[in-house]
Amino acid sequence: MSLAEFFAMGGYGYYVWGAYAACALAIAAEIIAVRARIVAARRDAGDGGPAR
Amino acid sequence: MNWFRFASPASFFPLAGRLTPWFSAAAAMFAAAGLYLGLFAAPTDAQQGDAYRIIFVHVATAWMSMLIYLVMAFWCAVSLMFNARLAAMMAQALAPTGALFTALALVTGALWGKPTWGTYWAWDARMTSELILLFLYFGYMALRHAIDEPRRADRASALLALVGAVNVPIIYFSVKWWNTLHQGASVSLTSAPTMAAVMLTGMLLMALAAWCYAIAIALTRVRAIILERERHAGWAGEAVLAKAAQ
Q: What does the DSSP 8-state code read for residue B44?
């Protein structure tokens, strides 16, 4: 099987890779968002929190 | 060992931090094995061609969308019954991940439906009840967000989540109770699997990866929530400063 055949997915490439890409993007975005949230929470807690 | 010790956010915070890397690593390993089986090892399907390979992400996300809701409703029940702060925080941490998996189940399902059924969407019982699940997650998060006082937000949103839990068995049994475009269950505990072993193994590995990912991300989010909600409690600042000093 060639690389081109693999990416073509028997003509269903758009649907198959679309589904996998949607999952990959959503999970990557969630990881980035949660990391940013805990970094911000750590900073605020270390300061004693904003607006005490 | 006294397990109830971990019902306190202050003791659970470091435990969650220690557990997270293990679940992250397990998620990555299961996903790598599952993707290898699903995209390379499993043969092309005789009827659906390669379009069926969407199953490896669709089933895992759809299972997680329902399971996370049940776990969230469980923590909501615990928080109401025992007035437990950490249980409410766990529910709060699970909701966005549950909503994400629900949205992914709908998107991957649509992308699978187009080449096999000829349509991205139909108002059949399975899809409609899954869409309602997404709105339940949104409703839970919106209600939390709308109430400023955290403990009141805990109670109101927990009640909403518990009432909404009735939708989960409806989703699960919809393919039996109604005549749906969506196919029936392919995997059952009471009968032999109807698909090839390599496909089933790939699907289960992807489901395990989704489990471990959901646990890792929810544990990290709950740590952020603990810090956000307890930052005036003294211990939170100390924990962060102690970590920084290491």
A: P
- How many residues in total does chain A contain? 52
d(CA B80, CA B156): 10
Residues 6+ apart with CB under 8 A from B14: B239
With contacts defined as CB-CB under 8 Å, which chain A residues touch B103?
26
B236 to chain A nearest CA, in Å?
Answer: 6
User: Is the whole-model pTM more than 0.80?
Assistant: yes
A38/B223 touch (CB, cutoff 8 Å), yes or no: yes
- How far apart (Å, rounded) are the C-alpha atoms in residues B225 and B9? 10
In chain B, the residue whose alpha carbon lies closest to the alpha carbon of A49 is B231
User: What is the C-alpha to C-alpha distance for residues B55 and B171, in angstroms, rounded to an integer?
Assistant: 18
Chain B residues lying within 8 Å of A48, measured CB to CB: 231-232, 237
* DSSP SS3 for A40: helix
Name the closest residue on chain A to residue B106, using Cα atoms. A19
Q: H helices within chain B, ranges in order?
A: 9-36, 55-82, 85-117, 125-146, 150-164, 167-177, 197-230, 235-245
Query: What are the backbone dihedrals phi and psi of residue B148, each rounded to the nearest 5 degrees, phi first?
Result: -70, -40
> Is-contact A8 B39, C-beta < 8 A?
no
| CB-CB under 8 Å, A22 with B53 | no
pLDDT tens-digit map of B134-191? 999 999 999 999 999 999 999 999 999 999 999 999 999 998 888 888 988 777 766 7
Residues 6+ apart with CB under 8 A from B167: B69, B129, B132, B133, B136
